[in-house]
Specification:
- By secondary structure, this protein is mainly alpha-helical.
- 55% of the residues lie in helices and 3% in strands.
- The chain is built from 16 helices and three strands.
- Strands 1-2-3 form a three-stranded antiparallel beta sheet.
- α3 crosses α6 and α4 runs parallel beside α6.
- The radius of gyration is 22 Å and the shape is globular.
- The two termini are 43 Å apart.
- The chain binds coenzyme A.
Amino acid sequence: MSSTYVPGLEGIIGAQTAISHVDGANGRLVYQGYVIADLAEEMSFEEVAFLLWKGHLPNRDELDGLTKELATNRELTPAARMALDALPKDADPMDVLRSVVSVQGVEHRLAKPTAALAIHATASFPTILATFYRRQHGLEPVQPRPELGHAANYLWMMNGKESSPEIVRALDTYLVLLADHGMNASTFTARVIASTESDLISCLVGAIGALKGPAHGGAPSAVIEQLEEIGTAENAEPWMRDARKRGVRFMGFGHRVYRVYDPRAKILKAMCERMNPKFYALASRVEQTALTILHEEHPERPQSTNVEFYSAGVLQAIGLPKEYFTPTFASARVAGWSAHVLEQAAHNRIIRPQSEYIGPEPRKPVPLADRG
Ligand SMILES: CC(C)(COP(=O)(O)OP(=O)(O)OC[C@H]1O[C@@H](n2cnc3c(N)ncnc32)[C@H](O)[C@@H]1OP(=O)(O)O)[C@@H](O)C(=O)NCCC(=O)NCCS
């Protein structure tokens, strides 16, 4: 058995999956055999969630069934509503999501993960976020509307008014693009927890925690902050060269697997140019500069734009506040996380790798009185 330590587990195969494939060399992302670009423009989040959970695109009856099930599971449990009320208004929405999803899970105990529980969890994420957002702004919560699709209902519950079909379509496309992505850190986390035969909600809570970090899903709001600091196209190059001297990483660039342009970023870039020209004008200049500098620093290690960079411009155009970018990412990825949990549970063996011990040689403990 191999015993070589690989930092970050780079290149190590941690699972077999039929759910999605990230082909980093060729910039291809596939869900259950379908190339992402073929799904992104036309499919709803509901269709893609069904695909991830069940392995095939739904027919009309199956889609109607799922849409209805999602719509009837949007209400929160009384305990979750109380938890939302108890949390401080200035809490990070990602922490709120992690906490309230966890509270919802107290009813599940060690329930075996099922597609029905995955649907329930997926339906509840937008309700948690929108309820907290409205409370933060001193607004009454808005009841979910069963006749609205997943994306439209999220925006309805946030804003208390219906969004235009273009905006709803943009959010749907975003949710489709972000719904799954191979063995990323949060999905791996979910699978590790699932492998102990724990419950679905515990897997999702762990995954939310992993997604939160800026090296993973926490990047899009940081993209906005970097762009705000840069301010003007002329300032891009001096700011970015200075940032690298200070060891700052460019948010929205670099990826463990992609060595070419992220296929999701390509779609989001085109959407951003159309929907958010002001953001795009500065962002595209920053992008060119970032790619030049990253190439100069490591010509042997191609780095490119990742999904987070233009996500920020698209989510801003949709009207979501930047604190809600990562939780909205979670609201897409919950479909993938739960699909992976179901897959792990169906073919389970506990995930339990080894560590390489680099601590001191065996030694005897010195009594407290004799320690200097
Ligand atoms: C995504 C990320 C964590 C991948 O990390 P990784 O797999 O360890 O990265 P790689 O092995 O390809 O490259 C590491 C090297 O490239 C540099 N690098 C990678 N991404 C960089 C970035 N965004 N800005 C500047 N330098 C970067 C690192 O400084 C490092 O160089 P060093 O070895 O001289 O220290 C990393 O690229 C990153 O932090 N990006 C910024 C945050 C971000 O956009 N996250 C969202 C990811 S979808």
